[in-house]
Structures are given as C-alpha cells and as structure tokens.
Amino acid sequence: MKLARLSFPSVHSRLLKAYGPQGWWPLPSMSGKRGFDSRGYHPGNYRWPRTGRDRFEIILGSILTQNTAWTNVEMTLRKLSAAGFELPEDFLRTSCSRLARSIRSSGYFNQKAKKLKIVAKVFSRPGALEQRSAPSREQLLELWGIGRETADSILLYAFARAVFVVDAYTRRIFTRLGAFDGSESYDEIQEAFHRRLPRNTELFNELHALIVEHAKRHCRSKPDCSDCPLSRSCRYFLSSSRQSP
Q1: Which of 11, 23, 142, 190 is 20 to 30 A distant from 206 in Cα terms?
Q2: Whole domain around residue 133: which residue ranges?
C-alpha cells in the first residue's frame, strides 16, 4: 500500500469532519455563559476575545500552559480570578512570592510568576490590550520566558493575527504524514503552513486546535490507529500494516 499524500487543506477538512469545531482559545471565566460550554470553549464562534480582559486571560493561559496540562491551567485561572487577579495592574500590585502561591497548580510556579509579572508590565500600558495594539512577534520573543509557541499563541488567539502555532503534536502528526522529516526548525514548519494554507485567522485557529485533539485521540507517542481519519496517509499506520500477519 502506497502513502496517499494529503494536502494541508485536506488534513484540516478531514479533522474538522471527524471532530467538529473546537472552540479555542477557551475562556474559563465565561464557562456556562451563552455560547460557551461548561469549560469556556466556544465552538464555531470566532468573535472572541472581545475585551482587553478576555485577551489578558488568554495571555495568562498561554504562559501557564507551558509544560503542564490544560486542566491544571483551568484550575489556576479560576483561583486567580477568585483572588482578584484578572487585569495586568492586579499582578503588578502583588509580590512574586504571593503570585507563585496562587498559581501552584500549574507547575513551575516560581518561574511562571516571574513571567506573569513581566507580561503584566508590558500589557499594563494604556491601550496595549486593544486588538489593534498587538505587539510584534519580535517584541514578545524579547520577553524572558516567552518562546515561539507562546508568542504565536498570544498573537493568534488573543489578537487574531494570522500566525500558525507549531507544537510537538504538529511536528509528530505531519512527520508521520510525510510532510516533514522531523529535523525541521519551528520556523521552517511554520513557514510551510503559511505557504500551503491561506493566511486566515479562523483557519489557523481551528487547525491548531484540531491537531491537538487528534493527537490526544489517536496520534499519541504510541498511536491508536483504529478509526483514525488520517490513517491511509500515515507512515506509521502503513508500516504497521505491512508488519501485521
């Protein structure tokens, strides 16, 4: 059986058909409200975030989710909100040690407290949280503790800039699909998405979320290929099929 190469748009179409709209980036503060599910996801509604507070919640989440599961981040965001930490000035008024205690459930809390104080200072400037005031990628990467994936998550999900977010799941899935050999840099992979897909915020938003969902359901380190919507185009699946009796 030969590898049936899928175009990037075809991958998006198949994953969307399999899993439906994902509703990223979740806003736990909006959980259960009209248009949101119980965890703050808003499938098919791309009008969010609408306010500076919404955008800052996404910025917080993009930092807190580093090296931890989103369920831990949800817990942390709820704790922060209950303690009155919602806007940049709230973070600037408190010490790193108190902030670290408040975000303990997200892991690496001392480092993340420092990162949150840094971004709070940047986004406390008048108008900094308005959509039209998005920082450049270079400005974000100059901040301590902000790497490419975090910077691009902020730009895409908080400020609706059409930049594709590359994570470990993206590399794994598209390497198995034959699009990459696994040695490419973050920027090389991102450029491939920018080149092969329309520069569209909603498309990039949904595809990144669908990649994460697919990795959780099927394309794990040790994959579950049963009922996988991409199996016929997957190197791993085909090599496993050849080895089967």
Answers
A1: 142
A2: 49-158
CB within 8 A of 22, min separation 6: which ones?
41, 43, 206, 209, 210, 212, 213
Contact indicator for 238, 1 with CB cutoff of 8 Å: yes
Within this chain, do residues 146 and 169 fall inside the same structural domain, yes or no?
A: no
Question: Looking at 113, 139, 158, which one is the last position of a domain?
Answer: 158
Q: Please write the tens of the pLDDT for every residue from 24-67.
A: 999 999 999 999 999 999 999 999 999 999 999 999 999 999 99
- Global pTM reads 0.94
pLDDT at 240: 61
- Please count the other Cβ atoms lying within 10 Å of the Cβ belonging to residue 77: 25
- Residues whose CB falls within 8 Å of the CB of residue 207, separated by 6 or more in sequence, listed in order: 11, 12, 15, 164, 197
Q: Which of 158, 190, 207 is the last residue of a domain?
A: 158
Q: Which residues contact residue 115 at a Cβ distance below 8 angstroms, ignoring those fewer than 6 apart?
A: 63, 143, 144, 145, 146
The reported pLDDT for the residue numbered 235 is: 78
